[in-house]
Amino acid sequence: MNRHSFRFRSLFQKYFLVLFLAVVIPLATNGVSEAWFGYRDQQTTLDRLLGVEARSAAAKIDGFLDGITDQLGWLVQLPWSVEPDERRRIDALRLLRQVPAIVNLTLLDGTGRERMYVSRIGLNRTESRTDRSADEAVAGARAGRLWYGEVRYYRDSEPYLTIAIAGNRPSVGVVVAEVNLKLIWDVISAIKVGETGYAFVLDRPGRLVAHPDISLVLRGADEATLAPFRAIREVIRRAGADVATGRDGQGNAVAAAASPVAGPDWTVVVAQPLSEAFGPIYAALWRTGGLLLAGAAFAGLLAYVLASRMTEPIRRLEEGTERIGAGHFEHRIHIETGDEFQRLADSFNTMAAELATSQDRQERIAKLKRFLAPQVAELVDRKGDDGVLEGRSTEVVAVFCDLRGFTAFSARATPDEVMSVLSEYYDALGRIITKYAATLTSFSGDGLMVLVNAPVPIEEPALRAVDLAVEMQQSVQELIVGWRARGQRIGFGVGLAMGPATVGRIGYESRFEYTAIGSVVNLAARLCASAADREILADVAIAEAVKGKRALIPLGLRPIKGYDEKLPVYGMPFEERADATVTT
């Protein structure tokens, strides 16, 4: 009796200890890892946030200055004549209206003499002929075509910058503009990182160009004021990383990121105190410690309850899992303890039922692969449900292609020649369609219909479809070179369009096809029919989606069969591969 009790107590203690540690150790590990990864995530988020804010501010300043220099460039296009240039004066006044940041403009001829001065705050003058060739701005513009001066302050309130641009030829002269930089101050003042984060701009020598506290900027070259800002910039430069840590003027530790403004050689710096940046992590550590203590107490209680009720449920679970693992999916584990063991048994029973269902599903998928496109069958396999093939409305790109002159070729060629051409043709296009994860819905003779973004969704379907069409043209044009060398006059055209369509499977019990129905399909087919050899024709939706990413050739309005009005059509150029040339 004593021996039996000793064994029971030993088993109880063992399970109690194991269960307690099994809960407490992962809980403690999770708490520590959460704290560590939380710190890393917060640091990564801070790095990304500060970097994005710095680059965004630099981009806005760059855009502001580039817009001004672009406008100024129009005033130095034509050479000066001896007579006063009224048209140039009108252009200068118009520029003042179009660019409110420009305060005044000075136009100099090729000899460096002032020919015109227009201003918002002063009197205009023309043909003063004052020699300004020795001015720093004029000399700088002539040396590098674009010159930026030092920042200065008008009436100690608003920052101004001098910009000078020289023409491509000496005879067109130089334009010098005084620009109000208040917009840059507005950009910097609007940047808020958390509650106390801020941004500022330094010029090349380290003078403040913009800061939310304008009084700091107005102190000019005061070394005591500028030293902390210069120190932060220097720390970032030495670190060679997006974000570095330093100390602000009050001695507080801050995280800062910088981004350059290339033209005037400025630096935008965004900073946030570390106490605020990592405040959530410190709070999370306290919460984690409290939860760890509560979890340890709960684990002790749970281990005590579970350790006394484990032997019989474990035996049943072991027996049941062995039978289910052997393939007896109809077996069920019966445990009615009203606790986790019963839920675990129910989970095993559910798993057995799902395995039986999965087995039936796999057999159905195997049948689907015999009559559906491979990528469609694979999608059904991944989803575990062929419901993805049911009819639905979605945006697709329809791609049609066929051979030009194939009917005439097939009429005069032998069946072996026709089948050889089609075999090479479909083999080349099939590899490309699979490569771009497109769906081949149908092919008839020499024509193919391909869908992009259905049923397999992809990012940027228009871009993927254009690349698909271009590679189709390149591959088939390589084949055409060989065919023409054998006297077979065949061409190849492609048409594609993007828009909403109804997609899904159609057919009957023993045969289904996946297809799309809608005006976008008809338009793609008509564009393909209109495409000549070596042409890729696309509609305006495709052109808008890939604009700036792929080359486009606007072909104007074209009559499309089946449409009452002419439609805008775009061509997609492509380059033939080097190995596609054959010498005869």
From TrEMBL:
<dbReference type="GO" id="GO:0004016">
    <property type="term" value="F:adenylate cyclase activity"/>
</dbReference>
<dbReference type="InterPro" id="IPR001054">
    <property type="entry name" value="A/G_cyclase"/>
</dbReference>
<dbReference type="Pfam" id="PF02743">
    <property type="entry name" value="dCache_1"/>
</dbReference>
<dbReference type="InterPro" id="IPR033479">
    <property type="entry name" value="dCache_1"/>
</dbReference>
<keyword id="KW-0812">Transmembrane</keyword>
<keyword id="KW-1133">Transmembrane helix</keyword>
<protein>
    <submittedName>
        <fullName>HAMP domain-containing protein</fullName>
    </submittedName>
</protein>
<dbReference type="Pfam" id="PF00211">
    <property type="entry name" value="Guanylate_cyc"/>
</dbReference>
<dbReference type="Pfam" id="PF00672">
    <property type="entry name" value="HAMP"/>
</dbReference>
<dbReference type="GO" id="GO:0006171">
    <property type="term" value="P:cAMP biosynthetic process"/>
</dbReference>
<keyword id="KW-0472">Membrane</keyword>
<dbReference type="InterPro" id="IPR029787">
    <property type="entry name" value="Nucleotide_cyclase"/>
</dbReference>
<feature type="domain" description="HAMP">
    <location>
        <begin position="308"/>
        <end position="360"/>
    </location>
</feature>
<dbReference type="GO" id="GO:0005886">
    <property type="term" value="C:plasma membrane"/>
</dbReference>
<keyword id="KW-1003">Cell membrane</keyword>
<feature type="domain" description="Guanylate cyclase">
    <location>
        <begin position="397"/>
        <end position="528"/>
    </location>
</feature>
<feature type="transmembrane region" description="Helical">
    <location>
        <begin position="284"/>
        <end position="307"/>
    </location>
</feature>
<dbReference type="InterPro" id="IPR003660">
    <property type="entry name" value="HAMP_dom"/>
</dbReference>
<dbReference type="InterPro" id="IPR050697">
    <property type="entry name" value="Adenylyl/Guanylyl_Cyclase_3/4"/>
</dbReference>
<dbReference type="GO" id="GO:0035556">
    <property type="term" value="P:intracellular signal transduction"/>
</dbReference>
